[in-house]
Amino acid sequence: MKPHFFSLLIAGIIGLLPLHAQIPATTAKMNAFVSGLMSKMTLEEKIGQLNLLTPGGGVATGAVVSADVETKISKGQVGGLFGVIGVEKIRKAQQLAVSRSRLKIPLLFGSDVIHGYKTTFPIPLGLSCSWDMALIEHSARLAGIEASADGLCWVYSPMVDIARDPRWGRVAEGSGEDVYLGSKIAAAMVRGYQGDDLAANNTVMACVKHFALYGAAEAGRDYNTTDMSRIKMYEYYLPPYKAAIDAGAGSVMTSFNEIDGIPATANKWLMTDLLRKQWGFKGFVVTDYTAINEMMAHGMGNLQTVSALALNAGVDMDMVGEGYLTTLPLSLQQHKVTQRQIDDACRRILEAKYKLGLFEDPYRYCDDNRAGQEILSADKKKAARELGARSCVLLKNSQQVLPLKKSGTIALIGPLANNKNNMLGTWAVNGDPQAAVPILEGIKSAVGNSAKILFAKGANISDDSVFAKKVNVFGERIDIDPASAEQLRAEAVATANKADVIVAVVGEASEMSGEAASRSDIGLPGSQQQLLRALAQTGKPLVVVLMSGRPLTLTTENDLATALLEVWFPGIEAGNAVADLLFGHYNPSGKLTMSFPRNVGQIPIYYNHKNTGRPQGDGPTEKFHSNYLDVANDPLFPFGYGLSYTSFKYDHLKLDKATVGLKDKMDVSFTLTNTGAYAGEEIVQLYLRDKEATIARPVKELKDFKKIRLEPGENKTIHFTVDKEKLSYFNSNLQWMADPGMFEIMIGSSSADIRLKSEFELR
Ligand code: NOJ
């Protein structure tokens, strides 16, 4: 076989063979298999492969659940299922497909595995704040191992939608506002899920979502219209999807929003011209939940029309809506779609099944022994604790109140202090909130008998019962205490008065962010703000531990708190991870990946903004400059910001060239020293500004970063490489290019805390 393969390869390289003969042997084998199978399929069976259903029974993630699923599977009318988990159930459903349906084609089994499976890790926005690609990849690897042990082979992750508006609840599921960091994380997640071999029984196929621009919903209201220039798309919103695809993501999910006026699910430019032709995507595209049907509400026609539009656009699989199943036969008859389009879509689904090894063994992911070994295993819980601690961001630490001493009396106060229901965060559909470690438990086990821990609830997450009802759709996240707000507060103050230090755990309920959880006011609910005011009045040091699925407006809390620690939703090991930070077992190293605005009026707010012709500058606000009368331009906490228990000095910046050519690689080096008393990690950030471009360019853009660990007193020389890629951008013709001229280079501890800078010229 080998000589044959090599002669083919050489002939292919020198262009003697037609294109199909240059295909690698494994692909050729798959093509032959799929073609053989398709030659036996009826039109109905082909359309059946395009049908993805959810039989309910788990958490429904949309308004509809599918009916008659068993009958449809037996008739070959289903290509895959989601919302079914566990080896036993999946085996049963698979049996229906491979024993009852005529051609015995196995089903795909998908699930929303977003931040861990049963071992829930921190929400993705939290994970992104670790800036730790190896750890993020590992989190996806572990989630893939655990999900596949429970029968699944396909996960609806990573969610790579860039977002600049924290009112949008789904910022919790993404990696924040930056395109460079977002792209690195997208690729790391795909590598983690898919590993080196998709057909292995412990890897799963990734589904990058939501293609595209879902994070740019107007006014941060979920599912809302998006509208932006192509330059903005190419430069800031599309690259993370592309990075996931370049990393080999097997599938893509469409977004609900429109793009250039056409819903993504019917957008041929997006799904075919860009995704397949320009980017070379070879996998399959699935819609989001009933996204085809929803195009009727967008005003795109009736179910038959919108289903045909989706297929024409290049969308292969219809999630839940059954528009394909019920209307494509008629559309084919009426020449609204072609046989070729149906065949192409069917082929892509079958290829995915082939790549996952399902034709070889439909029960590949149904090993009865694996679930017991993998689910909630000790190594995964250990990783959850580590990830939990590394995702947190220390926003304030005056008087070095943190880390806490394990002595005296600590008053642990707040509605999230002894709470299991909210530790996992949004989109933890397979996790069990009751398995989570509450903060109180984590703190008690950290201090043992060395300190006294007192507890009081102090406030409800919200006192508003109408609001609570909306938030409590997946279970009670906000429980309104029978005691009055005044009583709760008085009890908390009395408890605080007995202590040396107060730790207040406050914030959002987990379902105050996530899908369909937009907020127009992103402050801490009033009940909790009043609690903090009362606690601050005691005069005791006040450590605020903040849980949230988005950046909040925190100017008041920042004034009241002695220390402020953003912990997002840390996941199943919440209490232990937070205790690790509070007592200094781990020195905080996370940095924000989204700006925290001072108020909602500043939104959208992001660090890589343009300068305008009348920039405000650093001085007092001036008339006829780009500013507000009532608030500063800058955020309260900027992108890239996060404190440590130690301090770092940056010096000796050196560029190895003053001018660089397009083919050069410039070495940028500096010295980083740990000048404090604790070992710690610093995320050093490299920003560039193009000062002479053909279009207006941002004031700075992240182009590289490193996470460096140093012992107290230790220093290291850090190197970055700057090359053409880092200096390029999309010009008005959407060409990726670099302009000769001057660039500013900045090395910072955050986007606003630039420690070293210089300039160089690109020749
Ligand atoms: C709708 C969500 O937008 C998407 O992220 C999710 O994967 C699907 N529902 C399936 O649950």
Please provide a written account of the structure.
The chain is α/β, with parallel strands linked by helices and about 775 residues long. Among the domains are: about 380-600, 3-Layer(aba) Sandwich (Rossmann fold); about 650-760, Immunoglobulin-like. Helices cover about 30% and strands about 15% of the residues. It contains 24 helices and 26 strands. The strands form six sheets. The chain has an eight-stranded parallel beta sheet. It has a six-stranded mixed beta sheet with strand order 11-16-15-14-12-13, sandwiched between helices. Helix 22 (about 555-560) links the parallel strand 15 and strand 16 (about 565). About 55% of the residues are buried. The protein binds 1-deoxynojirimycin. 1-deoxynojirimycin binds near residues 289 and 515.
Task: Pick out its properties.
24 helices, eight-stranded parallel sheet, 32% helix, alpha/beta, binds 1-deoxynojirimycin, Rossmann fold, six-stranded mixed sheet, 763 residues
Give the beta-strand count.
26
**CATH homologous superfamily placement of the domain at 382-599:** Glycoside hydrolase family 3 C-terminal domain
The termini sit apart by: 51 Å
- Describe the sheet with the most strands: 8 strands, parallel
The name of the CATH topology of the domain at 382-599 is Rossmann fold
Sequence-ordered SSE layout with sheet pairings:
Elements (H helix, E strand, L loop, with lengths): L1 H12 L11 H15 L3 H7 L1 E3 L15 H6 L5 E3 L4 H14 L7 E4 L12 H5 L4 H17 L4 E2 L23 H16 L10 E7 L18 H8 L1 H8 L4 E4 L3 E2 L2 E2 L4 H11 L5 E3 L4 H8 L4 H11 L4 E2 L3 H11 L5 H17 L12 H7 L3 H14 L1 E5 L11 E5 L25 H9 L4 E5 L8 H7 L13 H13 L3 E7 L18 H12 L4 E6 L7 H6 L2 E4 L7 H9 L65 E8 L3 E2 L5 E9 L5 E11 L10 E10 L4 E8 L1 H4 L1 E2 L5 E2 L3 E8 L5 E9 L1
Parallel strand pairs: 1-2, 1-10, 2-3, 3-4, 4-5, 5-6, 6-9, 12-13, 12-14, 14-15, 15-16, 18-26
Antiparallel strand pairs: 7-8, 11-16, 17-19, 19-22, 20-21, 20-25, 23-24, 25-26
Bound molecules: 1-deoxynojirimycin (NOJ).
